[in-house]
């Protein structure tokens, strides 16, 4: 094969490879964009509706909301949170059954007011729901309980977010189930002399206009319940963690010298001064931290999404000194006593402690305590969608407004 033919084939291969790479990159960008756009226009997670139909359903749903004066589920989220507390019971608890019953009934009632059904059709749909609700609620309970049982706890954390995760699971389940239940309730309850209704955009209406805003309210209420419970349950554990871990330690070298004078032949013409010298050096290990038997309080302000932790000020916990008498000289008449040696050691301890405080030892412990508290509550503050934040206030400080 000639060199020119070999070069042409090599060039063709390179061009083909570049074309395939460009095509793959374009598809990798376009396909997710189309999927996200379809989701934004009302088709959820790959339901076989297609782009145009999804857009049409979303448009119909918005028209229904405008004609119906807005969409809102007048439903107590706290009752639903209470019901989610009972997941895993067999049979489902009355609180769970009541919460799901009211939820589906509210969806049917709001759909009946939003769509132009025949007179009395919405009431018949609620009656149909009362007849079909038992197996639906039982299946929902089994699904949610199974998800909860398979979910692993947060790594490295003992904070419980069971209500929040259950609320998220419920919203995920309803996005798959609620539209079908509402549609079946209305289609099954059509009177013999009535035409079969066309419920255009029902899934988009139920998912986007009814469930989505209500699910955000439910998620916030569930998270508030978890935060309150976790703060109470973790108080002793957090107190111990701050005592053991929020400490600072520094080594400080010091030197103290004392000259002890005494008069010899005082008042005589031959009066003289006799001097004894004592010098002690050493390295002090000064440790600061918190005594948590003093002020320690955690306050949760749900309206402000704030967890306020009040701590005492840091203080010196220990001051360990290794002294060395570097100079010890007695005079002719002046001797050194044990009391003087102990006084010199005490003075050296005060000196190294004062230097440690000057170098910011207490501030270091308080900084570590604040970082530790932030880490302890990170399972809540770092949760996607969580607006909670932690504020650490030391005794004598005013809270941040």
Characterization of this structure:
With 401 residues, the protein is α+β, with helices and mostly antiparallel strands. The protein folds into two domains: 51-233, no CATH class; 246-394, no CATH class. It contains ten helices and six strands; from the N terminus they run αααααααβββββαααβ. A three-stranded antiparallel sheet has the order 1-2-5. It has a three-stranded mixed sheet with strand order 3-4-6, covered by helices on one side. Helix 1 runs parallel beside helix 2 (51-68), helix 2 (51-68) crosses helix 7 and helix 7 runs antiparallel to helix 9. Mean pLDDT is 80; it is low at 38-70.
In terms of topology, how is this protein built?
Elements: H1 3-40, H2 51-68, H3 77-84, H4 94-114, H5 121-150, H6 162-188, H7 202-245, E1 248-264, E2 272-289, E3 297-301, E4 306-311, E5 315-329, H8 338-358, H9 361-376, H10 378-381, E6 389-394
Helix pairs in contact: 1-2, 2-7, 3-4, 3-7, 4-5, 4-6, 5-6, 6-7, 7-9
Defining key terms:
single chain, 401 residues, alpha+beta, 2 domains, three-stranded antiparallel beta sheet, three-stranded mixed beta sheet, 6 strands, 17% strand
Poorly predicted runs of 5 or more residues: 38-70
What portion of residues is helical? 55-70%
Q: Treating each run of at least 4 consecutive H or I residues as one helix, how many helices?
A: 10
Largest sheet, if any?
3 strands, antiparallel
Task: List the helices and strands in order.
Answer: HHHHHHHEEEEEHHHE
Q: Give me the Rg, rounded.
A: 38 Å
Binned strand content: 15-25%
**Strand order in the sheet with the most strands:** 1-2-5
Number of β-strand runs: 6
